[in-house]
Amino acid sequence: MMVSLAQAEATKRYKKRHPQQTKLYQYRSNARTFIKHYADKDDLTKLIALAQEQKAKLND
Which residue range is the domain that position 42 belongs to? Predict the structure, then answer.
């Protein structure tokens, strides 16, 4: 999909001013894509275990 030149410039400025937030969005997107399209049963089991460990750390 085409975006206007103004929108492309605004996106570029946002990414430059918010590099950490941009990285976070990209990591989240990559994780979702992996889970939805590429992960097998073993991968999902490992990811669930990692997520549970991280959740427990955050709750402490």
Answer: 5-59
